[in-house]
Amino acid sequence: MQKRMPYMSADDFSVHDDDCEKQESDWMPLSDLPDEVTSIDDLDCECWADYESLSEI
Length: 57
Known about the structure:
- This protein has a domain of 33 residues.
- It is 0% helix and 18% strand.
- Strands 2-1-3 form a three-stranded antiparallel β-sheet, with no helix packed on it.
């Protein structure tokens, strides 16, 4: 699986991958995940379901 770029929603600051179907035009690309994200379980969107760990992102 290729690495994905995380994006943050400007509306609610949720983090999604670059292929997320919820993505809108006002999303900001992130170079790194926020410090609050310490495991894959911290990412609420279903777009992360195919990942097993943060190291894949």
